[in-house]
Each structure stands twice: as C-alpha cells, then as structure tokens.
Amino acid sequence: MQFFKETNIDFIKSRFFFFVLSCISLGIGILLILFSEINFGIDFVGGTEIQVAFNQPVQIDDIRSNIEKGGIGDAEIKTFGKNNQYLIRVKENNTNDSKISTQIMSVLQKSYPGENVTKLGENSIGPKVGKEMRNSAIIAVLLSIIAITLYIAFRFEFVYGLGAIIGLVHDVLFTVGFVLFMGQIGVLNVQFDQTMLAAILTVIGYSINDTVVIFDRIRENNEIHKGLEIKKIINLSLNETLSRTVNTGLSVILVLTIMVFTAGPVLQNFAFTMLVGVIVGTYSSIYISSSYVIYVVDKKLRKDRAHELALKRK
Amino acid sequence: MKKRSISNILIVILPIILSAVLLYPTYRATQLEKVEKEYFQRASSNSADSMKIMDNFYKLHGEDLESAKKGRLKLGLDLRGGMYVTLEADVLKLVEESANEESKDEIFAQVIEKTKQQTEMSDANTIDIFLKNFDEIARPKKKYLSDYFDFNTSDDLAKAEEQIQDKLRENEAEAIDQAIEVIRNRVDKYGISEPTIQKQGSRRVVLELPGVQDENQMLSLVKTTARLEFKSVNNDQALVKSFFKIDQFLASGGKDFIDNELSKVDSSNVQKDTANVASKAIGDKKANSKSDASNNTKIDSAKLTENKTADTANPYANLSNEEAAKKYMKDHPFTIMFSSRYSQDNKSQAQEIDYSRDIFPEGTYHFMASEDNMKKILVLMKRPEIKNLLPEGSNLFFDAKPMVLKDNNGKDVNYYNFYACKDFQPKLTGEVITDAIATYNQTNNQPVVNMVMNSDGAERWSKITGANIGNRIAVILDDQVYTAPVVQSKITGGSSEITGMENADEAKLLKIVLKSGALKAPVQAAEVRVVGPSLGEDSINSGLKSSIISFFVVILFMIIYYAMGGVVADIALFVNLGLLLGFMAAFDGTLTLPGIAGIILTIGMAVDSNVLIFERIREELHKGRNLQSAVDEGFSKALTAIIDSNLTTFITGVILYFFGTGPIQGFAMTLMMGILATLFTATILSKALVRLFIKPGSNYFNFGQPKEEVATSNVK
Question: Do A36 and A177 fall within a single domain?
C-alpha cells in the first residue's frame, strides 16, 4: 500500500499565506491566554476538589444551591465522566482549618436523603504547595525548551535550533489558546492542571520529533545536492518525508482520537490537548520551522550576493 | 551467513526472554492473589477451620507470593485507590509551643500573629520571618529571646540569643523526622499494607496509604500527639511463671481458643508460623541431641530439656525425639512462639530455657519473637483472661526496631525483643524531658544520648533510678520500646547518659524519640489526594481499554500499509512494551494513570521509528538498489533521525522527572524507559527480524511497496 507516489508538491510557495494564517490564529490565542480567565486546576492554586456519585442524575444548579445553603460558597460543579457523577471544586481552601470535603459530603447526604451519595475521590491542596507546583511547572517548560534548542543547535546549525524553537513556541501557544477557547465555548471541561502540563510537554516532545525528522533530511540533502538553492532542498526534503509525516501523524492521531472517546474523564483532557498539539505540530514543522530556515538562509544569501556584487563593482 | 543468523536469533530471543523473566513475578503475584482470595472465601465461609485453610495456603504458596510481590509491577494510588498526603512541619506552631508557657505575653503573641500573616504570603523561611519580626516588635520593648525560651546554656546575653536561634532551627529540622518516626509506628499499628513514607526536601513528608479512604483515619495517624512513657522492666521469675500458666490455660482450653483469637488477625499477617515453629522445634531438638553447639542463631523455638532421660518425673522421658517435640508443642502453645533466655544478672551470658517444668531460677530473662509471632502475642494479650495471668500491672511491650536474623532456610526474619513493663507510681511521661542530645562518649567514643529533665522530672528520676539500680527502665513511645537501658547508678540533677546504641543513627533516632516527649512536632497536611476504589477501577478499565484498542488499531494499520514490514514492526512493538513494563517492575517503578499516557506515547514513538525506516527502505528500493543494500541503507540512514528525535524527547522526560511532582514523574519515568526500549527495538531488533525473515538468496521482502518496483528490483 502506498498513499503517495513521488510527490512534488510545492510546499514552499504557499508559505506566506500560512505565515499570515499562523500569525492571526496565534494572535487570537495570545489574546485568549491574556484576557480570558484561565481556569487553573487546584494543583496550581490550591483548593479542594471532590468527586461524588449519586444513584441518579441530579440538577447541577440544585446541587449548587444546596451547597450554598450549607454555608459553602463559591463552588464550581460539573459532571464528571458518567452523568450521575459530579466534580465539586472549592478554591483556595485552607486544608487545615476546615475539612471542606467532609462538610460538603454531609450537606449532600442531608439534602438528598433518598440518594446514596458516595465520595469517589478527593484532592485537596494547600495554597503554598499549589504555588510551588505552578513555579516548578513553568521552570520545567522553559528548561525543556532551552535544552531542546541547545541540542538541536548542537546537532544541526544554530539557525535550525532557532527554527525548531519558533515552531515549538507556536505549537504551545496555539494549543493552549485553542484548548482554552474550547473551554470558553463550553465544549470541554478544561482546567489548567498538572495533567494539562504533561500534555503540553508531550506536545513539545512530539513537535520537536517531527521537526527533527525533516531537518535530518534537509541536512542529508544539503550534502548530496551541494549548491542547490535552499528553497529547493527544503521542498525536496519535505516531499521525501511526506509519506512518513502522514503515516506517523495518522497513527498518533488515531491513537489520540480513540483516547479522547474511551480513556475516561481523567485522561480525556490530556488526549484532547495532545491531539490539537500533534496536528499543529505537524503543520508547524513544514510551514513554520522550515520556512524560518528558508527565510534566514535566503536573507543571508542575498546579503552575501549583494556584498559580492558590491565587491565586483569596485 | 550462518553465524550472522545465529546472532540475529539471539538479538530477537534474548529481549523476549528478559521481559518474560522481568514480568513473571507480576503474573505470578496476580495469579497467587486470586488463589489467596479463593482460600480466603473458603476460610470465611468455614469458621471452624478458617485458620487451617489459610495456614494451608501460606504453607503452599506463602513464600512464593511474598517473593512475587517484591518483583511485581506496582500500581499507583490513582489506579488502586488510596490516600496520598503531603505533610509539612508547622514551624510557627513549633516555635510557639517551644516557648515557655508562663512567659508568653502580649508582645510575643504580636510577633507570632504578624509572622503568621507574613508566612501565608511568602516562601521565605518561617524562622527567619519570626526572628525579623521579633527584632522589630519585641526588641524595642527590651524583650529578648531568652525571656521566652530557656534552652540557652550561656548567661551571656549575645551568646544566649545565638544559642536559642540555633536551637529553633535545629528543632525545625527535626520536626519532620519526629513526625516520620511517630507516623511509621502508627501505620504499622493500623495495619495499612505497603505504605510508603518518604521525606521530601527538609520540611515535608509524603505518605502513600493504599486502601485508606477515610480522612479521619489518616488524621488520627498524623494528628494525635505521640505518648512517651518510662516504665520499669520486670522480666523476672514471676513473669516466666505466668507464661507457664498461660501455656496451661491455652493447652487445656484447647487450641480452639488460640485459633479463634488468631483468626481475627488480618489474614495476610498470619503466616506459616505454626508450621515453622513445629519444624524448628524438631530441628532444634535434633540439633540438641546431637549436641551441636553451633546453632546459636536458632532462637525462636522451644528447647527441650537436655536432661530428659535422667529425670524420671519428666513426662517426655519415654518418648522418641519426634513425639517429644509434638507433645511439647501441644502442651506449650504460648511459649513456643518465642525464645526465652535466662541470665543470672544482666551481665552474664544468657542461656535458653524451656517450660517443660514449672521450676525457674531467679534472675533476668530475655524474650524474643519473630514478627509474625509478635502479632499473635499482641492479639492474645488483648484478651483479659490471658492478660490477667501476667503479674499484676504488667503488660508486654515489644521493641520498635527488629533484629534481623536468619532462619533455618537462610531467610532474613525480623525478631523483636519484648519486655514486661510496669508503670511507675506516679506515672513518669516524656513531658519532663526538656532536651536530648546525640553525641559521643568522651572516653570510649561510643555514641550516646544525653537526656535532660526539668526540675520536677529530675527529682522523681533520682528517686526512681535510686530504687532501680541494676534493673532496666524502658523508654516507650506509642507502646513501642525504643531502648531499655539498665540503670547503673542513682541519677541526680536530671541529666542522664544513655549508652548501648550501635551507631550514630540509632543515637539520633533515640534523641528524636526522647524529644517528642518534650516537643510534639506539629504537622499539617499540605496536600491530600484520595482515590476511591471504584474511581481507581474505572480509571484502570478505561485506561486499559483505550490502550488496547489503540494498540490494535496501530498494529492493524502497520500490517495493512507495510505488509511483512508491518509484522516486523508489530513484533518489535510487543517486545518494546514487554521491556518497558519489565524494566518498570525491575526498577521499582510505579504504574500510574499518566504513566499509561506515557506508554501510549511510547507506542507512537516506536511506530514512528519503524515508519521512518520502512519509508527509507522503500525509497532505496525505488532507486533500484537490491534488497540487501536497501535494507542496510534504510536502517543506517534512518538512524540519525531516530536518535535525534528520541533523544530530544528523552531530554523533555529527564526535565519532567526532576521538576515534576507525583503524577508527572510517573509519566516521565515511563516516557524515558519507553524511549530507551524504542531505541533498542526499532534499530537493532527490527533489523535482526528483517534479516531473519528474508529467505536466503531471495531478493524480495514485502514492505508493502508497489508491485512494479518489486519487479524492477528483482531484475537488478
């Protein structure tokens, strides 16, 4: 079986169009990150979160008003997995002073005497720990980006390292922006927590993997076809790796799509975030990272030529 | 060519064997646990023989199960349910509590209040903030640290302030160690199986308590302050006489009593002891009759009188060795559970005694039981009928730390010394201790602990020590004996030196225990995560389901697209997963939910590597190379891309592992192991497989390439 036979698609031609497209979507993404209220998980801000199950589905508003009557204000309530299971979240609760979870459970048991309300699980995190986790998360993301740049710059050329990083930043911003957007319009129950962080770091890993494969081919073609224009070399490399790009992308997308639908509430957000990241990562390897390399190498070439010409005139 | 194919076969077979070996304990443990469950069900439906049924199981599979459990792949709390708690020392409370109760005043309260507000906002060290606030608020009002704290030894003001500051910091550093010791004690007592207690940084401890759901149960583990007591040790003639009576009581009351009582002990704890003891009793007796002197490590068993033939009154006189052992076991169900040794005083060499007759010399006795027997004895001691047979006011207390000795099979077994202890009148508790210091004796350089008491304690201590010279006094924390030193002389002045620690670590532990009498290290839960058993099960099920589905979809895709090449990639993928899980099991990794995500990512990476290689081989075939060189070229040209892409992902994994916490680390761990496995399977293993699959002399292998290319490559 073969999807592609010796393709010769001119990827490079449309790079300006996609550059503009990326800029626009990134702009929207950044605006979303900056101005929408990011729903941080209690991992990063502290608070208490309990998962409860009822015998039958009940109204979320009903639960909320009951909890408020019980003296626990500002609770966030969502369904969780099955439709008779709910997640109740109270932010910035000090774990020591009051056992919020016990309080909530007793309120629920009193309000729904006919139901057998059971606690499936509970997370409760002090504000200080949350802050520390947030800090170490930011450090982890930054450090891995830096380490990857250094590795690529060492294995290839510095401009490739930069190209890879620009692609990475693009992917991370787009993914976070898109996932937030999905949360904003209510398609997803997203919150920014440790699982999401793991997903983003995996996206970084995947996206760099994709870029490296293409760069590797460019490196090789550079040796074989010395003197050929960089645009042509890159286009050739993109075509030669196209089959691999599509096949791998397809398998991973298949796996992640299956996960989105079957992996259960805890892994669902993880899978969705990765799915977005993998698609955008595949795209950025072609249109962002490679285009950046063309841009820089071309510019340098023109400068050199101009220099040469100037020398000749003299 | 032949040599090459042998090495290729080895490359394929060895990793398969390796992963099978590494995963066998996991398989075995799961299987045996099923069997155990069956036995347990039978035992609980049949109360009369419940002990026997369970004993039977442990006799058959006990050791097997135990060793399988050690090597199995462990599941994280998110998959099996349980509680994850991070505790933090409440440093400010520690400072507050260590101040003198009488001298606390308005100014001190102000300092504490301000520090409290500031610590909530800041990450800075609490003691630093406290000292800064003290300088700002208290010092202008001519108050000094020495007005509130009295652990300075110097009267010089500047020096005293410095000493107090040092001491506050020292207490802070010790608080979490103290908490760990207390919690470790209790975890055992609550019967929580396979808990982990880990120090994280200097101020935190992470508890993982599988199976615990109830927050109140956890809090009772953590919150209640520990109880430190001094008691007198009375391992004397009266005690062994009472042991003899307990034997008689149990032997006449029938074995039923013990069986009934002991079946209440958690079934997993009741190990194949009775069987063990029996075989040992016989073994020892044989050893004795052969007068083998070298068996001094076999202590946990009954010894028969050596002069049995000389004494006509001896009930064992006319019995064969084996029968004698059987009878002894039947007559002495209690005392066969531990070893009893006698010495005239605390100094002379102790010798084993037995309970065949009710005649015991006066002097000091030493008792020791294996861990399993200790649990049984503790259960028996809860029964008033039995406890009342002990000398009045006495109770049995076991050592907190075991001695590890070899049993007959050369296996390590934990043995605990135990003592019959009585309260002093009035009771003496750890509250009288003001400080404890671990140091070295100046003359012989042995580790020692200096214990300092307040004036009230010192007065009583001198009376008690004066009355107990030559006797032992036990230091007991939460009903466990940490040390039971012999009183050498009357101690006046409240400062005592405790010797007999084997190393500096033991001395440090004792110091921490003694201080917990003076200062209850306050801890607070900084993070609590509970996963209910049904949530854990759901997670496992859906995680497994989605892994399996995606695994098969990928496998199918590879075969459809790459034909025989796909088969090679799929075998490599299986071996990859086997190695990944096997290494996780071997290196004590824990499989968590994010870990499953890591495995799925590994599948993706592994597939990618094979796609890279096969695409390359197809390309080379298309260029008209013959099969052999196309395969070689394909693997070698894809190698750089595979290594570069996997290494960059590996870097991400390393960073995640070191900067992430809990769940993220689980993800990073599987990711890293997966990448290592991928590097091996994708490059070395699948190459060997391709070579093995190519028929000798053939120039065709189906990588799913279009037919016409096959033809051209065949021509060349």
Answer: yes
